[in-house]
Specification:
- 29% of the residues lie in helices and 15% in strands.
- The protein contains 8 helices and 8 strands.
- The strands form 2 sheets. A 6-stranded parallel sheet has the order 4-3-5-6-7-8, with helices on both faces. Strands 1-2 form a two-stranded antiparallel sheet.
- Helix 4 (138-149) links the parallel strand 5 and strand 6.
């Protein structure tokens, strides 16, 4: 058994491989396998992943939203019933599954509560929808104060139709009759308050956070236009209308729709089936 090592006869030796025998053929050269630095490749995939994630979150590199609007808030003016927004709401619901009215009084508002209510309404939510707002008359004043005071909001587009920035003839007449009884009229009669936060769409760094459209009525008896040339990111239009008719005119409705949805009306399959609430 001493001649057995590991179950084999130690005296039985296998002949050497020809490649190892003296004077035998040389071993074939070892092929070198190309080595790839996967750092750049990994970084590339990481960049693609981050890019896709940013797209899914509807965010751009500077942290602002630029995706399609998924929610619209309609903000009526002083003494204005919601029915005045009915034609616009009907048109916008072809584009957006959520078109809702701002839940507030139309007169004798508690202004601080109204502004705070709007701040709460425009905060970002889990669904990450970008918000568009359409205001008329004094509704724009409330919205501007809320945007200026919001540290974080989801609003990307604001349409201001005949906005309160300077008083017209009718508020002057109402103030002569009622004094400061009506809070909204009191604000409109104070030129500094009426024009407060005209640059509400700007970021702290001076960028245009909210794209804006301002529509003035040429025959407006309630408000007078204010020059906005010193502000960037604001498109200004003037149409033949009065303060009351401007919000229902077909040409204005079309202008608002195109501004909120510059890429056109989405495919209805993009809107969630059954989710067209009548808020």
């Amino acid at each position: 058994m001493a001649g057995i090592r590991g179950g084999r006869d130690a005296s039985a030796q296998e002949p050497p491989h020809p490649a190892c025998a003296p004077g035998g053929p040389r071993a074939p050269p070892v092929e070198r396998v190309a080595q790839f630095d996967t750092t750049d490749l990994t970084s590339g995939f990481a960049g693609i992943t981050l890019s896709l994630s940013a797209s899914n979150l509807n965010m751009t590199g500077n942290g602002t939203r630029e995706d399609r609007i998924g929610r619209i808030i309609l903000v009526p003016g002083l003494f204005e019933p919601r029915v005045a927004f009915a034609p616009l709401r009907h048109r916008l619901r072809r584009n957006c599954r959520r078109v809702e009215y701002f839940p507030d009084r139309v007169a004798f508002r508690s202004l601080e509560q109204s502004v705070q209510r709007m701040i709460n309404l425009i905060r970002p939510t889990d669904d990450d929808d970008a918000i568009g707002i359409v205001t008329h008359s004094f509704g724009d004043w409330v919205t501007r104060q809320a945007l200026a005071r919001s540290e974080d909001h989801a609003v990307t587009r604001l349409v201001s139709v005949a906005p309160v920035m300077r008083s017209g003839l009718i508020p002057i007449a109402l103030h002569a009759c009622s004094g400061n009884l009506i809070p909204e009229i009191r604000v409109m009669m104070d030129s500094s308050q009426a024009a407060a936060n005209l640059d509400c769409g700007r970021t702290a760094g001076g960028g245009d956070r909210v794209k804006r459209l301002v529509i003035w009525a040429k025959a407006d008896e309630s408000v007078r236009p204010v020059s906005l040339e010193h502000l960037s990111g604001i498109r200004v239009e003037r149409v033949a209308a009065t303060h009351l008719t401007v919000i229902i005119q077909p040409n204005v409705l079309k202008m608002i729709e195109r501004f909120l949805f510059p890429d056109g009306i989405p495919d209805r399959r993009q809107l969630q089936d059954g989710e067209n609430p009548s808020h």
